[in-house]
Amino acid sequence: MEQTATYRLIVVGAGGVGKSTIVLQLVQNHGGALTKQLRIDHELCRLDILDIAGQAEFSALRDQYQRSCDGVLCVYDMTSRNSFDEVAWFREGVLRAQEDAATVPTVLVANKCDLADNKREVAAQEGARLAESWTGCRFLESSAKSRINIDEAFVELVRAIRAAPGDANRRVPGHRRRAKSGRSRGCTCS
Known about the structure:
Strand content: 15-25%
Organism: Acanthamoeba castellanii (strain ATCC 30010 / Neff)
CATH topology: Rossmann fold
Number of strands: 6
Radius of gyration: 16 Å
Protein name: Raslike protein
Number of helices: 7
Keywords: GTP-binding, Nucleotide-binding
CATH superfamily: P-loop containing nucleotide triphosphate hydrolases
GO biological process, one term: signal transduction
Distance between the termini: 30 Å
Number of domains: 1
InterPro entries: P-loop_NTPase (IPR027417), Small_GTP-bd (IPR005225), Small_GTPase (IPR001806), Small_GTPase_Ras-type (IPR020849)
Strand order of the largest sheet: 2-3-1-4-5-6
Structural class: alpha/beta
CATH architecture: 3-Layer(aba) Sandwich
């Protein structure tokens, strides 16, 4: 029987940017659970996805999830300048929650590209520059409504996790990440 690698992922961003819709699009037809099993680069993977609410009242739960995640999908709404300005704050929350932040792979997602022609407030180049400033973090534009780049965002995140130091421990069933001290902070993405 083939062993399945399990990856704990979180999705963060301001309220209303489409985080929940992105997750639901990925896991549709899976009984509503926020778990998805798929094959990525010839390896069977199970994604346990935690959709972090953007609202302040969920901050304690958000901190707990951020400490134990293997990777983070940072989402903003390309039709909202404010959500773009806030997305770095959500990423910083993950970095603060994990002492060994250099091993927290991240993918930056600009959602609602189906509305880009008439309502775009954030240029694609701005998103790409922000991702690049996060140590080469991958950047994608998506539409949860039209299902554009939904699977790709999670596949890229798993690839970034695999490329990060310490990935072998994530493949052990039931593994929980433990932060290590003494490393510099940053985002390591492929």
